[in-house]
Q: What sequence folds into this?
């Protein structure tokens, strides 16, 4: 889209400034030599000092590794459960308890995180007393909690994808002799794979940066990266947090760039195919 | 498991060419409080193309989906070749369907699409490849096996869908509005090709359509549906020339219909006096009707002659002859449609072929004309 006229140029500039100036200033300050976050040490900057400090910070590295493991587990489990729930809601027609399922599945999206976190903590404690599992709070309970709320988002994504595609594809497969389970794995699953993939990415990012729910269900020795960053910031922002944040921004930006390039490539290819098909009209 | 896997069994004695191959007995389907299909009974013969014709909401699609197994009848039975299929799931029926949207699997190539049905029967890879090749040959899509559905044109997709539905050699092929997604030129071409393929393979076809032209050219027999019921079954010419009710007469083609009273009932036909029409209609081919009964006379627009002067001597009181003024002329190329206002005030529609090129002295608007028709043309309808 071309910005036309002065007004739209100004709007574009303002938008970009609001969105990106905070991030850019954070990136710039991550190369600051000064110990004080807000004071620019012109004499010795830029420097990679804080990146080096970061690499030797055992606490941050451990937390980052834990966060990655939890996010991977939570996203993968949430994708399985969320897909099943999405299929049940979009394809099984009307059945007893459908409304209840629809409501319960999307509850974590609308519920305040504090409440979700608190109720999960109560559940885990009660379960621990009743059946002896889970034993205390820690990485396992964090993962369980993350699965719970990530699943809701996956369900919504999968359900809307299923609602958008032609049910006669599944009927055609059944008509050709495939049993329902086979129809699911050969037809439905491949077709909703893009939705499942984006659901997984969404779940991964949600789990990766969740703080509120995590704090309720975390235990000693199970601090995730957002918890560590948050506790560091409470004692004043140190420049190595800037460095950490810059690395995260870089990772996310690369991921987005790759996926949008891929999508544009797919789009071009599809348009070319459609033109070819139209030209070959019999 | 699938009975389609078995090679063509010797025909059971009950399924000769004339007896019912598909037997629908008193089938009803209710969705909640709504009756979509209402006590339908229908016999379909082996090797014929049967067209279910009806408007939207007439229940034709629901009936088709019950034949495919996607819906279970609320009551009644469906038998194919002597086998009761009413409760058999779609994946175990010797029936295949061509969907209106074609429903080609977008993530599979043409070849994989067509092979899908055969793979479910666990045939060997060579057998599958051979059969897929054969059927793609028949639908003239041999060179396109590696393409994906979105790389095909509408007509090509239709052929692939047909090949996919036929490759398992079903006992019955269901086609849901098979030509609806094609443009006009392509439709005509495809129509004849479909007939050709059907004759070559001898598969029984049931076609659902709302398009009467499609139904007339494709079908060996038609079943007209209205509000969940079959209102008439017959050959295309039966239905067009001898409709059983006002609904059918009006639904198929266009028709001039006038209410009137029977006043004579003799050997030379039924005489109807119609105030709407302003003349007497004598219908030579009409079943007996009591005198005084209220009936409707239906006359097709192409069966009416138009002339500047009254035909013959107007000595006897005019029968099947009426005067009027031309109000509109629509030139269609091959034919012209004349809308004539009769002296009684009613409008009559007349279709004439444009036989001569640039005929001299054509009938013009606002000209006074005489309309007449042969005594065999009017159809007398009582309901």
A:
């Amino acid at each position: 889209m071309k910005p036309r006229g002065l007004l739209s140029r100004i709007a574009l500039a303002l938008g970009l400034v609001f969105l990106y100036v905070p991030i850019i200033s954070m990136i710039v300050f991550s190369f600051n030599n000064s110990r004080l976050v807000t004071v620019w040490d012109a004499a010795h900057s830029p420097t990679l000092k804080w990146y080096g400090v970061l690499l030797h910070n055992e606490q941050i590295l451990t937390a980052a590794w834990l966060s990655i493991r939890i996010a991977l587990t939570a996203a993968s489990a949430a994708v399985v459960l969320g897909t099943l729930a999405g299929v049940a809601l979009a394809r099984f027609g009307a059945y007893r308890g459908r409304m209840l399922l629809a409501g319960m599945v999307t509850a974590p999206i609308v519920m305040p995180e504090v409440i979700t976190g608190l109720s999960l903590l109560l559940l885990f404690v009660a379960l621990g007393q009743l059946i002896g599992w889970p034993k205390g709070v820690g990485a396992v309970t964090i993962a369980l909690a993350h699965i719970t709320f990530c699943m809701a988002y996956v369900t919504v994504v999968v359900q809307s994808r299923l609602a958008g595609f032609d049910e006669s594809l599944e009927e055609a497969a059944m008509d050709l002799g495939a049993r329902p389970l086979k129809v699911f794995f050969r037809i439905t699953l491949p077709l909703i794979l893009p939705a499942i993939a984006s659901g997984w990415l969404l779940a991964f990012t949600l789990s990766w940066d969740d703080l509120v729910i995590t704090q309720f269900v975390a235990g000693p020795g199970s601090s995730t990266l957002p918890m560590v960053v948050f506790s560091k910031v409470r004692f004043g922002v140190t420049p190595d947090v800037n460095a950490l944040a810059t690395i995260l921004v870089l990772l996310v930006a690369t991921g987005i760039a790759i996926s949008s390039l891929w999508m544009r490539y797919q789009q071009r290819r599809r348009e070319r195919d459609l033109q070819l098909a139209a030209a070959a009209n019999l | 498991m699938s009975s389609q896997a078995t090679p063509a069994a010797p025909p059971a004695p009950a399924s000769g060419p004339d007896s019912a191959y598909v037997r629908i007995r008193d089938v009803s389907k209710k969705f909640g409080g709504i009756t979509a299909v209402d006590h339908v009974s229908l016999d379909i013969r082996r090797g014929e193309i049967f067209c279910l014709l009806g408007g939207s909401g007439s229940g034709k699609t629901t009936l088709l989906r019950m034949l495919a197994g996607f819906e279970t009848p609320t009551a009644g039975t469906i038998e194919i070749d002597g086998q009761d299929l009413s409760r058999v799931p779609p994946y175990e029926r010797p029936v295949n369907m061509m969907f209106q949207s074609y429903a080609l699997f977008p993530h599979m190539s043409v070849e994989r699409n067509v092979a899908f049905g055969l793979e479910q029967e666990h045939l060997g890879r060579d057998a599958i490849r051979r059969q897929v090749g054969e059927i793609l040959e028949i639908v003239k899509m041999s060179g396109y096996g590696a393409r994906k559905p979105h790389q095909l044109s509408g007509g090509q997709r239709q052929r692939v869908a047909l090949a996919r539905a036929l490759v398992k050699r079903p006992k019955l092929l269901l086609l849901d509005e098979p030509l609806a997604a094609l443009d006009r030129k392509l439709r005509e071409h495809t129509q004849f090709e479909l007939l050709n393929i059907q004759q070559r393979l001898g598969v029984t076809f049931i076609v659902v359509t709302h398009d009467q032209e499609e139904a007339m050219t494709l079908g060996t027999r038609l079943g007209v549906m209205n509000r969940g019921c079959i209102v008439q079954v017959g050959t295309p010419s039966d239905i067009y020339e001898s409709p059983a009710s006002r609904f059918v007469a009006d639904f198929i083609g266009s028709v001039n219909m006038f209410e009137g009273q029977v006043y004579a009932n003799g050997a030379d036909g039924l005489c109807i006096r119609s105030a709407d029409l302003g003349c007497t209609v004598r219908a030579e081919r009409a079943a007996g009707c009591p005198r005084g009964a209220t009936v409707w006379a239906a006359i097709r627009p192409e069966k009416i002659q138009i002339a500047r002067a009254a035909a013959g001597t107007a000595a006897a009181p005019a029968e099947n002859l009426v005067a009027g003024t031309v109000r509109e002329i629509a030139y269609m190329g091959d034919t012209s449609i004349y809308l004539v206002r009769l002296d009684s005030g009613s409008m009559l529609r007349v279709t004439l072929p444009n036989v001569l090129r640039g005929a001299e002295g054509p009938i013009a608007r606002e000209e006074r004309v005489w309309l007449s028709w042969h005594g065999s043309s009017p159809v007398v309808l009582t309901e």
